Amino acid sequence: MLQAGVVLGAHLPVEMRSWSGEKEEFSALMRNNLVLLRALSTWEEEALIADEGERSGQRHLQTKIDLLLTLLSADILARSTLPPRNFCELRTDALQVHSAADPAFAGYPCAALYLQTHLALPLLLPGQEVEVIASGDRAPSWILRFTLSAGVQEMLDRLIFRHHRRAIARLREAEARGKTRGSGWTA
Question: Which residue intervals of the chain are DSSP H helices?
């Protein structure tokens, strides 16, 4: 079983791939992950700055580059198909995928998780083994415990925490709106 903690839970495209377990391939996977996590962090930061109304020449250029990358990714995605969406729970050390499909792979497992469907780069989570959970009262699922480089791990931890913090803020906003409406106050 997985430990309780901060989780990024969402219906996301995910597929199981294989990897060799070799250091060279691990390094290449981590380089790809750094590119993806930096891009996601930049997009999220840019969205926050845009909301605050701050714009600089460098930020404007970054926005144009992001748009170009998005368009290129859209073209790549249009030529290929994303894997099926499943409910995923991403933790700092494990991925649980709620799916009846058996995670097929040869060699060592590596989950490809598309955190942003408009971006053609998946987060690649290399592991050593997959645990399949078949429970009578719950949908079947599988768990991949993965290992990442220190830099990728730090960026993933930040991403999961940011999404968790935003989910809590949305819940509080919804509760506040519900209380305001129910108390007779008008907004």
Answer: 23-52, 57-79, 150-182
Residue 123 lies in a domain: yes
Q: What local confidence, expressed as pLDDT, does residue 183 receive? A: 45
Q: What's the start-to-end Cα distance of the chain, in Å? A: 45
Distance CA 91, CA 94 (A): 5
Residue 2 lies in a domain: no
User: Which of the 8 DSSP states describes residue 174?
Assistant: H
Q: Tell me if 21 sits within 8 A of 117, measured CB to CB.
A: no
Q: Where are the alpha helices (DSSP H) in 80-149?
A: none
Confidence at 54, pLDDT banded by 50, 70, 90: low
What residues contact residue 134 under an 8 Å CB cut-off, 6+ apart? Answer: 140
150 belongs to a structural domain: yes
Sign of CA dihedral 62, 48, 77, 71: negative
In the chain, the number of structural domains is 1
| pTM flag (> 0.85) | no
Give residue-wise pLDDT tens across range 91-139: 999 999 998 888 888 889 999 999 987 777 899 999 998 998 877 677 7
List pLDDT tens digits, range 141-167: 999 999 999 999 999 999 999 888 888
Structural domain harbouring 95: 8-182
Q: How many Cα atoms sit within 13 Å of 58 on the Cβ side?
A: 1
b/e map 148-161, b = 16+ CB within 10 Å: beeebbebbeebbe
